[in-house]
Amino acid sequence: MTLPTTQRAAQIHTFGDPVTLLTAHPIPQPDTLRPNECLVKIEYAGVCQSDLHARNGDWLQKPTLPRIGGHEGVGTVVAIGAGTVDSIVSVGDRVGLKWLARTCLKCEYCRKGDESSCPARIVHGYTVDGTFTEYAIAWTDYVTPVPESLDGAAATSILCAGLTVYRGLKYINARAGDWVAIPGAGGGLGHMAVQYAANMGLRVLAIDSGDEKRKLCLSLGAEKWIDFKESGENLVKDVIAATDGLGPHAALIAAGSPTPYQQALWYIRPTGTLVAVGLPAAAQFQVPFEFLVGKELKLIGSAIGSRQDAIEALDHAARGKVKCHYSLRNIEDLETIFGEMKRGEITGRVVLKV
Amino acid sequence: MSYNIPKTQVAAVVPGPGKRLEIKQGEHVTQQSELEPGQCLVKLICTGVCHTDLHASRDDWPLKAKTPLIGGHEGVGEIVAIGDHTERSPVKLGQRVGIKWIAYSCLDCEPCRNGLEQNCLEVKLSGFTVPGTFSHYVVSWVHHVTPIPDSLDSNAAASILCAGLTVYRALKYSGSKIGDWVVLPGAGGGLGHLAVQYAAAMGMRVVAVDSGEEKRKLCLELGADKWIDFKETKDLVKDVIDACDGKGAHCAIVTAASPSGYTQAVEYLRRGGTLMAVGLPAEAKLEAPIFWTVIKSIVIKGSYVGNRQDAIEAIDIAATGKVKVRYELKGLSDIQHVYDGLQEGKIAGRVVLDMSK
Q1: Would the ipTM clear 0.90, i.e. be above it?
Q2: CB atoms within 10 A of CB A303
Q3: What EC number(s) are associated with this protein in UniProt (chain A) (predicted)?
């Protein structure tokens, strides 16, 4: 097949500067693909707050530059590298790209299913180019097959946002009927966490602000709602009151600032679990021992997930149990979207039609 | 580093289903250029013999071996060649590795993704569906061979690759905690004596069940807390319950190839206890009284070999010296005698074959 030679892409050149919109970036050609690499024509790319952190170089570990960002993509395999063995996909298959572009599958972490911690991991939009582009290189043993019944745009945000909250919720090991508090329940990750949690039989307390988010959360299965701006200093008291006067059994927190995590230490009931999936920049989580030990709390960090978690997260969506609420925009809007994200103005997820 | 790889070798071959073993000269040795990406050639130093090898040669299982068959799946050797275009191999030329029952798993299917590599939909079984370790050279897969630490002698490592791994994994997945009572019917046998040691290493309290003075001495020496001779006792179930603080065992690991061990276990397990079924009798059924299994909240789990992580852990524990295989060393040329011995129930402990003999 003949591919065009150039494409559009959003590339990070200098941390903190607006991304550069390239219009004639070279497309990797099929004959240059190494064994087990594949070329994917991206149809949809999700925008994640991590992409903003990557653009700003916020974290201790920074992307290598220049770097095409993005790590949530759905597209079609258009070429597979010569010499590829044991590929799980063929040319023409629809696949998902996620944060983890590839892990080794052979180290102790991978052998135990902890692919997120593989020391040899390759990351889209960070250590290799990602999905804010028309054609991306991915790996045949790591892309996620997308179920046919699932629309591409709807599948896109399951690959990072959905996966992350799904796996975080799994780690709570909750029983049906347990209360889980979800701060930021109206956001990109939050609104999917509400749905996965409700499907797991959990009773969901959605915490966010504004009428639009309130309506969304309650319609997606949250049993109760608290507006944190209205509660103000009374948030902890209000959360405890809303959850049978005892506090929730768990909290799943995707927030980009430390405050919701600190508050959760106060309202989670003794022996409860706090699962942190958010990545506030330049921030510390202060945990008084009286809470950690005195309340016998479990504090768990959960990062994205394994191939199996991704397949399960997509499967729930394919069966109609989880729907991503997204607005469809263009690659050219990326900087505007980052601005809205920073100000907390986005409900649900943003997906770029590439 | 390059190795002189001969074109032919000696191997013990079962020519057809149920046929007698033949030691054959002139069997083909896969050359480096013939290895597929991901494969390696291992020059064997020694190999263990497992009862499964006998089942394979006698064709008496529901699962069928591929004949002509070179059996064996407890091999220890050195990697002498790796296939071209092999990516990211975790092992290198010259490294000493073990080959176990699970020679290959795809790592992509649902069982593999969930850590059940032994149940891979594309699994390849050493000495059963692909050539095994009763030969001098064998093809295996770089991501599935088990690295052997320098501190563990090859002959000592061989039987860990199947017997050790199998009982270790059964103990690991039984949910047993430190201080729990674990009953081991057949504790003096090939798998049993390793189970005694792993259980003791994991902090469990062991009730060894077997027969005879020699096995009694062995089990107590290896760390068993209590011993029951099943031939001398008048009431095995009562004796086991009494031995476990009068409440019964937390766990039973049944490695015997006969059904009676299973029924008794449901009786002597305490409430909430776990029965790990490991032994593989061909046609027998596991009989457990439904009423007592339910009323006592008994858990019954099948445990089958292990994955790469289990194998590495089993070998690493042996390398610390906490688990030592009791084995008899023979030569590859003795293999038919060993099979006869296994058939007649005359083999105590494990047998390891030295390839140079």
Answers
A1: no
A2: 16
A3: 1.1.1.1
